[in-house]
Amino acid sequence: MEFGEGCRAHAPSRLVAWTSNNRISEEELKELQSRFSEVVEISPERLRRARSAWAPTSVMIRSLGRRVPADWVARELRAQGKLSYDVEVFIMAAGFLTVRFRSQEDRDAALENGPWLVAGQLLAMEQWKANFVLGVNTVSRTVVWIRLPCLPLEYWERESILDIAAAAGRPLAVDYCTAQLQKLGYARVKVEINAITLLKLGTFIQREEQRFWQAFVYENLPAFCFSCARIGHLESSCQFAVEGPIG
Fold this sequence. Notes:
This protein is α+β, with helices and mostly antiparallel strands. It has helices spanning about 5-10, 15-20, 25-35, 45-50, 70-80, 105-110, 160-165, 175-180; strands spanning about 60-65, 90, 95-100, 115-120, 120-125, 140-150, 170-175, 185-195, 200-205, 210-215, 215-220. Strands 2-3-1-5-4 form a five-stranded antiparallel sheet. Strands 7-8-6-11 form a four-stranded antiparallel sheet. Strands 9-10 form a two-stranded antiparallel ribbon.
């Protein structure tokens, strides 16, 4: 008999749905709270001790496309991060991974050094969080390169490029060719974005008495929906209703 099997015959039928896939909605949580009053308390000191083993040096990861093997992720983190050791990888449910480095500096470098692509799949990566419940919380922070095509020459100062890119997300760096003005077809900027919110397709730039539209081109995105401007699914399977402008 599987763990919990003996309880299922007495559980409300609509609760079985979330126990079978480890997900629970806010409505189902409220129903549980109305039916069960018992609470298990864990001592704050024990929690502080347990969290100290994870918080300073760990990240949580999920693929924004197909799932990739955990050992592939570990190899990529070591190779691209130029680490002298193998990171610890802990396989979670629903395709999530927790990765622990040996130092906070290595963890912070991994967060800043994206984009992380493994087997062609873009990874979302965030600092480890306490009380992170799989199926309720998610990992949505990712780093991507964006291009600013046909950017007028007077905007090719680093500060101006970063200001424009800030409309897409948190700018982290410009690439070498952009900084050295070697290729002027487009400026290239590394930005941090939220993978579950609408992507900005561009921004207006004010120039004296007029303004012009500057498009953003995102590199190496997984499936992109042109209906809701989110990544992770195609327009044919979109479940989001969008009203008004999405740019």
